[in-house]
Write a structure and sequence with these properties.
The complex is a heterotrimer. Chain A is an all-alpha fold. Chain A has 10 helices and no strands. Chain C has 2 domains: 236 residues, P-loop containing nucleotide triphosphate hydrolases (Rossmann fold, 3-Layer(aba) Sandwich), CATH 3.40.50; 56 residues, no CATH class. Classes of the chains: A mainly alpha, B mainly alpha, C alpha/beta. Chains A and B meet through helix 3, helix 4, helix 5, helix 7 and helix 8 of A and helix 3, helix 4, helix 5, helix 7 and helix 8 of B. Chain C: Keywords: ATP-binding, Nucleotide-binding, Transport.
């Protein structure tokens, strides 16, 4: 059976190391993911925080996230590579571009979810704008901010699978090679590896997301009328990230 | 432009194929989510189970799903069923969570008053809960629609990407125009689908011109 | 002493919230701004700590223009209590109370010790210090809000409908607590409400506002009740009809020295001392004796 053969391929120590081994390709996959995520965070987080804090430009966020969802990432990557040539940085660029909208959206919606009265009162008792951002908005928004990062990460991991199609490696290389040579055992093994990586990353980030929920927010008793405002809807967490790639 | 004219039959055919392959998952996802969403809202346990299962399926990158499904379904790798099934799974995954939220968004007191005037459980579902959950369901369906149309092109790697064929072909021939045309036509289909859904929503739910959820909330759900 | 000099505020959307408003708010007294929603009362309050800057005119505190003061340090020197308390949900009660002292660099230990004292002051048990706001009742949250407002020992305390969201029994509790506090602390309190009963209960000076923050009448509660400046005020404070016009219920069986009072609708409103069944100051014992100060409207039951 294909599944067992694929598992056998994965656990075979002969396939672990070496130029075409699992480990180097996993490392590459993680490298692409890490670099792209880093770039996306550097741009997306500040932009999202600025939009969320000032409330200006939220139409931009809506337009950005809406249109990017419709964009076929696979086509975009191939299109760009025809101009830039093969290489690490075109890939990182495309992956980062794809990851920025969910990161901005997460940061923006996180800040937007913070009760206006809380912010207003923080300002009224004399917090500076930076203190409001750092001591009130970000701590309360952290679960949603991380939700955006989590979506972005999964999208990058999924889309990075195509790297194998454009001359790079990564775990997607098994899939592409398997399909090209009609060796479905290898393709299946690649699929398992990519899926496992995605699930592991998702699980890890879900855990982190749970841990950063501010204590007073999660532990509320049911007595007060305003409690519901602090119940972060979990909708965004495992929500609807797009499995591009 | 000249290329497009010369290959209009190809592009038109691929577009039709694109529409055909993406309509099934969109409709399938919608139909499947109604009983699932109702169940999830009715029994907390099933909600958790559903969300976990579809959450896991949804996390699996599409290419991986395209490749593994044939051995699960017993189909050939180039069979379009694989892509359709994979996209339907994603569609259900998006819809299930959205549907549970949608049914949860029906105000408690509306349900209580429906009970009070003597609706049976089934008639209450179809005449009260389902219509009132409509706007949120529609919002999620729009996300499903756009996502499905966009994801379908990845299927080109397993021989069933409809317009995605133009990406691979254009890449192999080093011809960006072809890729661009593929992207533009994919976007056009996504926009047309979206507008059709909006229109259907307007006709079926005239009371919900202003959605219960702000567009911002929708955006977040879709993106994050 | 807080002075508004010809202050106006036009918001970005064009609404004129405050139109040429002048008022003197005396020190160590409670001044209540009262009016229906949208009359500009909250905008006025927020001008005092520069949460809102006037479009024209200026505000002085003790003779100094606040326009020149940096907003952040001004706000830290003024207590602010709002509806729904505005507490930080992710911080414990004690850290909420100590927020401003901690911001201004007071050592944590000292700030916490002071915060505990403040919990005593506002009538909260110290055992609540380690709870989060969501674990408190609405009334308790408001008390924490008051404690936070007092944390820097400000001369001025601004209160924006602080008791608007709690149930009537808790509200009455909080109102009397505030009266007690004010007796002990002697702050300059500026209090905003739409509830005229609350305004009369708490205010040394009551300012009745109409749309655009136009002052319809200002003065001590008894002055306003006795001599409403116009129809609007009379209507607003309810002296012309309804529950503020009280009279002796002749049908009630009043034994002893109390007479039952009923309001304009005929509902029992209270009792009045009447030794021997005769009201002090009343010459005779007519059929219906109006207790209202307004003699020209006597007897309009």
């Amino acid at each position: 059976m294909l599944f067992l053969e694929a598992l056998a391929f994965i656990v075979d120590p002969a396939n672990l190391l070496g130029e075409k081994g699992i480990l180097p390709r996993l490392v590459d996959h993680l490298l692409y993911t890490g670099l792209s995520l880093g770039v996306a965070l550097l741009i997306g987080i500040p932009v999202g925080l600025i939009i969320g804090h000032t409330g200006k430009g939220k139409n931009l966020v809506i337009a950005l996230t809406g249109s990017f969802r419709a964009l076929p990432t696979f086509g975009l990557l191939l299109f760009i590579i025809l101009f830039t040539g093969l290489g690490l940085w075109p890939l990182v660029f495309v992956l980062a571009v794809l990851a920025i909208p969910p990161i901005i959206a997460g940061a923006y919606s996180g800040l937007d979810s913070v009760n206006r009265e809380t912010i207003d009162s923080a300002r009224a008792i004399g917090m500076t704008e930076w203190q409001i951002l750092g001591k009130v908005e970000i701590p309360l928004a952290l679960p949603l901010i991380l939700g955006g990062i989590r979506s972005a990460t999964l999208q990058i991991i999924a889309t990075a699978t195509i790297a194998g199609y454009v001359g790079l490696t990564g775990l997607g290389r098994f899939l592409i090679e398997g399909l090209a040579y009609h060796d479905y055992t290898i393709a299946f093994a690649g699929a398992i590896l990519v899926a496992a990586l995605a699930l592991a990353a998702d699980g890890l980030l879900a855990l982190v997301q749970k841990l950063v929920v501010p204590p007073g927010v999660s532990r509320g008793s049911a007595r007060t009328t305003h409690r519901s405002r602090w119940n972060f809807r979990p909708a965004v967490s495992t929500g609807t990230h797009i499995t591009g790639g | 432009m000249q290329w497009l004219w010369e290959n209009r039959d190809l592009v038109f055919g691929l577009s039709l194929e694109h529409v055909r392959l993406s309509v099934i998952p969109i409709i399938g996802g919608f139909i499947a989510c109604i009983p699932l969403g109702w169940l999830a809202n009715r029994f907390r346990m099933t909600r958790a189970i559903q969300l976990t299962i579809f959450g896991i399926l949804f996390t699996i990158p599409s290419l991986a799903l395209f490749v593994t499904l044939p051995s699960v379904l017993g189909t050939k790798i180039l069979n379009p069923i694989n892509v359709v099934v994979a996209l339907t799974i994603y569609a259900i995954a998006i819809m299930v969570r959205g549907a549970a939220d949608a049914f949860a968004s029906v105000p408690r007191d509306v349900i209580e008053s429906a009970n009070a005037v003597g609706f049976s459980s089934a008639s209450r579902f179809w005449t009260v809960e389902f219509p009132l959950a409509g706007p949120v369901l529609l919002a999620n369906l729009r996300v499903v629609s756009v996502t499905t149309v966009s994801l379908l092109s990845v299927g080109a790697l397993v021989g069933n990407g409809a317009l995605g064929y133009l990406f691979i072909n254009g890449y192999q021939r080093d011809f960006p125009t072809e890729i661009m045309i593929g992207i533009v036509f994919t976007l056009v289909i996504a926009v047309v689908f979206d507008q059709i859904l909006v229109l259907i929503g307007r006709i079926l739910m005239p009371w919900a011109r202003r959605p219960r959820r702000s567009p911002r909330a929708l955006m977040v759900r879709g993106a994050a | 002493m807080i002075e508004f000099h010809g202050v106006s505020k036009r918001f970005a959307d064009g609404t004129l919230a405050v139109d040429d408003f002048s008022l003197l708010i005396p020190s160590r007294k409670t001044t209540v701004l009262v009016g229906s929603s949208g009359c500009g009362k909250t905008t006025l309050l927020r001008m005092i700590n520069r949460m809102v800057d006037p479009t024209s005119g200026y505000v002085d505190i003790d003779g100094d223009g606040i326009a020149a003061m940096p907003p952040v340090s001004l706000r830290r020197s003024i207590g602010y209590v709002m509806q729904n308390s505005g507490l930080l949900p992710h911080r414990k009660v004690i850290d909420n109370v100590a927020t401003v002292p901690l911001l201004t660099g007071v050592p944590k230990k000292e700030a916490h010790a002071r915060a505990l004292e403040l919990l005593d002051t506002v009538g909260l048990d110290r055992s609540l210090a380690d709870r989060y706001p969501s674990q408190l009742s609405g009334g308790q949250q408001q008390r924490v809000g008051v404690a936070r407002g007092l944390a820097v020992n400000p001369n001025i305390l601004l209160m924006d409908e602080p008791f608007g969201a709690v149930d009537p029994i808790v509200r009455a509790d909080l109102q009397h607590e505030l009266i007690r506090l004010q007796r002990d602390l002697d702050k300059t309190v500026v209090f905003v409400t739409h509830d005229i009963d609350e305004a009369f209960l708490l205010g040394d000076q009551v300012v009745i506002l109409q749309v655009g923050a136009h002052i319809e009448q200002q003065g001590a509660p008894s002055d306003i009740l006795a001599n409403p400046a116009n129809e609007f005020v009379a209507d607003f404070v309810g002296s012309a009809r309804g529950k503020r016009r009280l009279m002796v219920d002749e049908t009630a069986d009043s034994r002893g020295d109390d007479l039952v009072l009923i309001d304009g609708a005929g509902y029992p409103a209270g009792v009045v001392d009447a030794p021997g069944g005769v009201l002090p100051g009343a010459g005779s014992s007519p059929k219906s004796r109006s207790i209202s100060n307004k003699t020209d409207q006597a007897g309009d039951a």
